[in-house]
Automatic annotation (TrEMBL):
GO terms for molecular function: hydrolase activity. This is Alpha/beta hydrolase. InterPro entries: AB_hydrolase_1, AB_hydrolase_fold, AB_hydrolase_sf. The keyword Ubl conjugation does not apply. Keywords: Hydrolase. The keyword Transferase does not apply. It holds the Pfam family Abhydrolase_1. Belongs to the AB hydrolase superfamily. The lineage of its organism: Bacteria, Pseudomonadati, Pseudomonadota, Gammaproteobacteria, Alteromonadales. It comes from the Bacteria. Residues 28-272 form the AB hydrolase-1 domain. It comes from Pseudoalteromonas phenolica. GO terms for cellular component: membrane.
Length: 290
């Protein structure tokens, strides 16, 4: 194991994170998955012919997901805390340049981080996610009440949901997504564990709670205004309609934005890994050292 590998494992452990990495390049690519997914979201890309000489590729399980630690019993999951988690991770790792890849919620984490710390990021790629999910000012109180109601319910039990078989888990995930069986299976392998009663989810149940706070549109636009980081936005051809609304709303926040349409649904990077990797690599190589 190289010194770089040891330092990466040490940094992840210190932060209570789990993940996978590949390569030994002096430049770091961090990949962030979407809500209720895990680092296996990028497994199809990691199975392709990565440039491991110039880059070290790292994909993590966000807190509460996959094999990463849950937050303490008296804590909750706020979107902005994921941005802070990313900040701490980048500070722990010593690389020449840092590039970000984010899918869905992971993309939103990436673009808010880049807005706050533009000097730390060489370039980023956002996959079917852009901007920040917002709440109308008139809905702020109801947002808070819904969050408090769910907190009370979850405080009575933090037990994760169980299924009779792993096949049931995969099919349940397919019902709430566009994923085919193989990709749903890939994600749920890392989000589950076998127990005496059957198969149990490893994701923290609190991830499904209403957030107690969301930015208004005005606040979100202010946070993201003037992003200088060269950004590639990969839009899924059969993605969610909400993404079109988000792109229209936040497009002008980016000073250097390229949009590329990718065949497939919301998880187009899993469906078309080779094409996605080629598109991302071309973008990053343009901002890498010669």
């Amino acid at each position: 194991m190289t010194s770089s590998e040891k330092n990466t494992f040490k940094a992840l452990k210190q932060l209570g994170l789990s993940g996978k990495f590949k390569g030994s390049g002096k430049n770091l690519i961090i990949c962030l998955h979407g809500w209720l997914d895990n680092c296996n979201s990028f497994a199809p890309i990691f199975a392709e012919d990565l440039n491991t000489l110039d880059y070290t590729w790292l994909t993590i399980d966000l807190p509460g997901h996959g094999e990463s630690h849950w937050k303490s019993h008296d804590a909750h999951y706020y979107f902005i805390d994921y941005v802070y988690d990313l900040k701490r991770l980048i500070e722990e790792l010593d690389f020449n340049k840092v590039f970000l890849v984010g899918h869905s919620m992971g993309a939103m984490i990436c673009n808010l981080y880049a807005a706050c710390y533009p000097e730390r990021i060489a370039a980023m790629s956002l996959i079917d996610g852009i901007g920040i999910v917002t709440t109308k000012p008139s809905d702020t109180k109801q947002q808070l009440l819904n969050a408090f109601k769910q907190r009370k319910k979850s405080s009575e039990s933090l037990e994760s949901k169980s299924f009779r078989s792993f096949d049931d888990v995969v099919k349940a995930r397919m019902k709430v997504s566009e994923l085919d069986y193989d990709n749903a299976e890939l994600l749920m392998k890392r989000n589950t564990e076998f127990v005496e009663q059957g198969v149990k989810l490893k994701t923290d149940p609190r991830l499904k709670q209403h957030s107690g706070f969301r930015f208004s549109t005005t606040q979100a636009l202010s946070c993201l205004d003037g992003i200088k980081t060269p950004t590639l936005f990969i839009k899924a051809e059969q993605g969610y309609p909400m993404i079109d609304v988000q792109l229209k709303l936040f497009r002008d926040c980016f000073q250097n934005l390229t949009v590329s349409v990718m065949p497939g649904g919301h998880h187009c990077h899993m469906e078309n890994a080779a094409q996605t990797l080629q598109t991302i690599s071309s973008h990053f190589d343009a901002y890498n050292e010669s």
